[in-house]
Write a structure and sequence with these properties.
The protein is of the alpha+beta class. The protein has 14 helices and 24 strands.
Length: about 525
């Protein structure tokens, strides 16, 4: 299972985005200097309005990867003048990298963290931006699997029934790889099936389970009918991702569309991709305004688009008129704008696509040490899994002579994230991501139980909880219409208006940078005649 980029988005309330602060911000929030670190929380409820109306050429709403890419390409093309409005004070969206001293040479990635080999366009873009990619640790034969009280090395696992799950004998006798091959064959996926590297797409339309389209079945229903309750639980625990409510096609796509090679990571932090894109866009003439939140959007009488934009710092709302608008928002942020905009509420191509999304929580906790203690267990780098509250454990350093970093816990899905949440309080506008002494001790106790040794106390500890209060949870397609049709229709949801939608939320590769780039490229090509990836 390779949904490591998956960090979901809740559907409730106005989300907040965490963003890098501008080096210098004018009264209107225009970025005029370099980007520096900073965190922004929700705006206050009180607002004041101004009657002044500003006109811009292209308003890009959202400073994540999709918005940054569109701004970069439009600015480089030179025919349009893009202005980026970002509600928080950090560029990057769900890409957020942070150093955890004393560990060096590797970053904590609170959101997306790796690039599968199938996503060549992302690797190429990183190269174009002058960024270096390095290998990302993968599971090895020495990695641990600790499920239902049994602890084994991954290389020791030959049969599913080595763990305490009640499954039919014919299923228990399979190896995990054989089990997943059997799941694929049950719906018609064979070695000849081409997913084209997409976790959703037209490949799913001909696949069925017991006469029903896998696009219309939930993952839970499909796996329970095929494997029984304990069999479904084993699949969840082995992959360490909870995706019960997604469509069966989404789950199968996540399982099959990526992997099969070496993953990569961006040296210096994954968020350098959107940061570098934005900085280049600025040098080409684009404007970037941080702390500017879109409240509503409507059609103007002259055919342009009318925006109500809130300054989260001053509480002043002003009207902006744009010749074209690009919504590059997360699903919950987009839902908020839809609720307050009659033009979007009456756009079924967008509202029905948003309704089909399943949002999940996610939690990541990183600990740094003076040395990689896991090497004492024969583990160099890689990924272990457990059914503990921490779920996944990534060993990110192996040099015994240097400080080391561990992704101590990565829980994905509402149940998993809720179990880990008490150890990882939510970040807020007036707090850092540093974990308390009590949280460090709690996580260390779980690590000790999973690894069967007394794990030392960390030197540094940071975490991020993506929940209902945040804008970073990853939506995945739920049961319903084929996702590739939903995506195509939602890109330009309102006829007669230059309004475009992009981002990974409504893409064929949700939770991955590739999904954001694909939809951004469709918007560039269809809306502006500019090439993308």
């Amino acid at each position: 299972m390779t949904t490591d980029e998956v960090e979901n988005t809740p559907a409730h309330g106005v989300s907040r985005r965490f963003v890098l602060a501008a080096g210098a911000v004018g009264a209107a929030g225009v970025v005029v200097g370099g980007l520096v670190g900073g965190v922004m929380g929700r705006s206050s409820g009180a607002t004041r309005s101004t009657s002044a109306t500003e006109s811009v050429d292209v308003a890009i709403i959202g400073g994540g990867v999709a918005g940054a890419y569109v701004a970069n390409r439009l600015a480089a093309d030179g025919r349009r003048q893009p202005v980026v409005f970002e509600a928080s004070h950090r560029i990057g969206g769900r890409l957020w990298s942070q150093a955890v001293p004393p560990a060096t040479g590797v970053m904590a990635e609170f959101g997306g963290m790796r690039i599968p080999p199938q996503h060549q366009a992302v690797l190429q873009l990183a190269g174009e931006l002058g960024l270096t990619t390095i290998p990302f640790p993968a599971s090895t034969t020495q990695s641990l699997v600790r499920l239902r009280g049994t602890r084994l090395r991954r290389g020791e696992v030959e049969r599913v029934d080595q763990f305490n799950y009640a499954m039919p004998a014919e299923i228990g006798a399979l190896s995990p790889d054989e089990l997943f091959s059997m799941i694929n064959r049950s719906v018609g996926i064979t070695s000849e099936t081409s997913l084209s590297g997409n976790q959703s797409g037209s490949w799913s339309e001909t696949l069925t389970w017991r006469g029903r389209s896998i696009d219309e079945l939930s993952t839970l229903q499909f796996l329970v009918e095929l494997l029984g309750h304990d069999g479904a639980q084993f699949v969840r625990d082995w992959t360490a991702f909870e995706m019960w409510a997604t469509s069966a096609s989404t789950w199968l796509g996540v399982s099959n569309s990526t992997g099969g090679g070496s993953y990569a990571q961006v040296e210096g932090g994954f968020d350098q991709i959107p940061i570098q894109l934005i900085q280049r866009a600025q040098r080409a003439g684009a404007e970037v305004r941080l702390g500017e939140q879109l409240l509503s959007i409507e059609r103007a009488e002259d055919g342009s688009v009318q925006l109500d934009v809130l300054s989260v710092d001053t509480g002043v709302t002003r009207r902006v008129r744009a010749r074209a608008v690009v919504l590059a928002l997360s699903a919950p942020a987009m839902r908020h704008v839809v609720r307050s905009s009659s033009m979007l509420r009456e756009a079924p191509a967008l509202t029905e696509a948003l309704d089909q999304l399943v949002d999940s929580q996610a939690v990541k906790a990183y600990l740094s040490y003076d040395r990689p203690w896991w090497t004492d267990l024969g583990i160099e780098t890689g990924r272990s899994v457990s059914d503990s509250v921490l779920r996944q454990h990534f060993y990110l350093s192996s040099d015994r002579s240097r400080p080391a970093l561990l992704l101590a816990g990565y829980a994905f899905g509402d149940v998993a994230a809720d179990l880990l949440a008490p150890l990882v309080p939510e970040a807020s506008s007036d707090s850092s991501n540093e974990l308390s002494a009590a949280s460090r001790q709690g996580i260390t106790s779980v690590l000790s139980e999973v690894h069967g040794i007394e794990v030392p106390q960390p030197i540094g500890a940071v975490a991020q909880r993506w929940s209902d209060a945040d804008d970073g949870t990853v939506p995945l397609w739920g049961p319903g219409d084929a996702p590739h049709r939903r995506m195509r229709a939602a890109i330009t949801p309102v006829s007669g208006v230059s309004l475009h939608v992009c981002g990974d939320a409504l893409s064929l590769n949700q939770g991955w940078v590739m999904g954001a780039l694909e939809t951004a490229s469709l918007v560039l090509q269809q809306g502006f005649g500019v090439d993308g990836i």
